[in-house]
Each structure stands twice: as C-alpha cells, then as structure tokens.
Amino acid sequence: MSGANSKRDVIGWREWVTLPGLCETPMKVKVDTGAATSALHAFDLSIEDRDGQRWAEFEVHPSQRTKRNAVAVSVPIVGYRRIRSSSGHSERRPVVSVPVRIGSGEFETEVTLTARDEMGFRMLLGRAAIRRRYVVDVARSYVQSTAPPRKEQTPRKAKTPRKAKTPQKAKTPRKVKK
C-alpha cells in the first residue's frame, strides 16, 4: 500500500468491537461507508434530565437474538441529529460519545441511538468513525478481530432407540349395506 493510506490499518466490512467502559462483550458491527454517522441499537431507550444535562439510559445487547450479556448504560447526550435512512425515512436521534475498540485500536466516536431490531447488526460504524483511522477492504470480514468464543454447548443426550412397530393385520374392507 502506498500514499496517504500507507499508515492506516485495514478493516473488513464487518468486525467485532467492544465499547470499553460500557460493554466489554464483543459485538458484531457493520462497517458502512455509505453512512456518515455511526449508529448503535439502544434497547428500552429513555431520556432523563440530570442537573441541567440530558442523559440517555438504555441497554446494549451485544449478542443477536438474545439478552445474554445485556448491559445497562447511562451516558450524557452530546446533541441530536436528523438521520435519513436508505429508504428515505427521516428520524431525529440522540447522539452520544462512546469509546470503540477494534483489534488493538481504540478511539472515541459519536453514535446515534436508534432501534435496529430488524437489522442484522447491533451497530453500524460510519465514515466519521473510520476516517483517517482505517481503510476498508469490502471483500474481507473480521480482519482486525476474531469471533468471540461461543458458550460451551452441553453434549446432547444420545437418542434412545424406538421400539420396533409390531406388524398389524391387514384390515379387510367392510361391505357397505344398501
């Protein structure tokens, strides 16, 4: 690699990240160069006023389709942004600043909080977060990270053999009375 990108680390189109101090369980993120701003799925989001400052309280569920490893988070809101989705829908979202760790790199970035229930990733990492830090190789995944170990699965019980069915006598057709 040469030129301006020679000192930047390469990341894939999806990576495992942690949010140090907020959520240490790795979560799968999509690196989205089409999105200017990063987005984090916030479960049960509520906005509170504390000493003249607005705070976001929510849960992060780092694992898809489960509440296992869910973490309650409370962070100050740094602003609001109007975000337009790829379908054209516009939404005003709270913005918070969070630490992000990808591989050995760690940095602070702003993310919008939203409901991403229907999406395949709990977090999108947009252009503002990766600018001047990483080069994205869209043909690769998990360049800076490896998948976290899955929880140990208990061995399944061996199936017990079923009893063999005893052959039944063939039924003779009944005569229909007229």
Concise summary:
This protein is mostly beta strands.
Outline the structure in words:
The chain has 178 residues and is an all-beta fold. It has one domain: Acid Proteases (Cathepsin D, subunit A, domain 1, Beta Barrel). The chain contains one helix and eleven strands, in the order E-E-E-E-E-E-E-E-E-E-H-E. It has a six-stranded mixed beta barrel with strand order 2-3-10-4-9-8. Strand 7 and strand 8 form a beta hairpin. The N and C termini lie far apart (93 Å). The N terminus is likely disordered.
- Can you tell me the CATH superfamily? Acid Proteases
Beta strand %: over 45%
CATH architecture: Beta Barrel
- The SSE order reads EEEEEEEEEEHE
Unreliably modeled segments: 1-5, 152-156
Overall 3D geometry? Answer: globular
Mean pLDDT: 85
Q: What value does the Rg take, in angstroms?
A: 25 Å
> What's the total number of strands?
11
Structural category is mainly beta
CATH class bucket = Mainly Beta
Proportion of residues in helical segments = under 10%
Main-sheet strand order equals 2-3-10-4-9-8
| Termini Cα gap | 93 Å
Distinct helical segment count = 1
Topology:
Elements: E1 9-12, E2 14-19, E3 23-31, E4 38-41, E5 43-50, E6 53-60, E7 71-84, E8 90-102, E9 105-114, E10 123-125, H1 127-130, E11 134-137
Parallel strand pairs: 1-11, 3-10, 4-9
Antiparallel strand pairs: 2-3, 2-8, 4-10, 5-6, 6-7, 7-8, 8-9
